Amino acid sequence: MVFVQPDGSKQEVDAVDGQSVMQVARAGLVPGIVAECGGELSCATCHVFVGEPWSGLLPERSEEEADMLEVAAEEPTECSRLSCQVKFDAALDGMVVTVPKAQ
User: Fold this and answer.
1) Residue 31: closest CA among 12, 69, 49, 5
2) Model confidence band, residue 29 (pLDDT cutoffs 50, 70, 90)
3) How confident is residue 22, by pLDDT bands cut at 50, 70 and 90?
4) CA separation (Å) from 68 to 38, 71, 73?
5) What number of other Cβ atoms are within 10 A of residue 84's Cβ?
6) Which CB contacts under 8 angstroms, 24+ apart, belong to 7-16?
7) Residue 103 within any structural domain of the chain
8) 66 part of a folded domain
9) Given the DSSP bridges, would you call strands 96-98 and 10-12 parallel, antiparallel or unpaired?
10) Which CATH number does the domain housing residue 80 bear?
11) Is residue 57 part of a domain?
12) How far apart are CA 91 and CA 93, in angstroms?
């Protein structure tokens, strides 16, 4: 999985099937993924922008995730996801996610 910082720098991190993108980021010490709630879907500080074509491979956002994205520090887009709600699997190998400027 590749994490892109707001300045364009990239960090590649190994992911394991079943891990959330947030868990992958935290294990890889990716800056900008605060994850204050630890993945409990209650803070929106793990907001990321999922690149194409991977965003099209993900399940739809839950109503709870959509609600939390509304209070994210950076304006959400169609490709916005909470990284705690996206589970990695082999189909997502090479997935690129961009970390917002603010959480």
Assistant:
1) 5
2) very high
3) very high
4) 14, 6, 10
5) 28
6) 15/88, 15/92, 15/93, 16/88
7) no
8) yes
9) unpaired
10) 3.10.20.30
11) yes
12) 6
- Amino acid 12 reads E
- The one-letter code for the residue type at 100 is P
Whether the CB-CB separation of 35 and 46 falls below 8 Å is answered with: yes
Residue owning tokens 């991977």: 54
pTM exceeds 0.90, yes or no: yes
Distance (Å, whole) CA 37 – CA 69: 14
Q: How many domains does the chain have?
A: 1
What letters, b where the CB count within 10 A reaches 16 and e where it falls short, cover 34-57?
Answer: bbebebeeebbbbbbbbeeebbee
Enclosing domain of residue 77: 2-98
50 belongs to a structural domain: yes
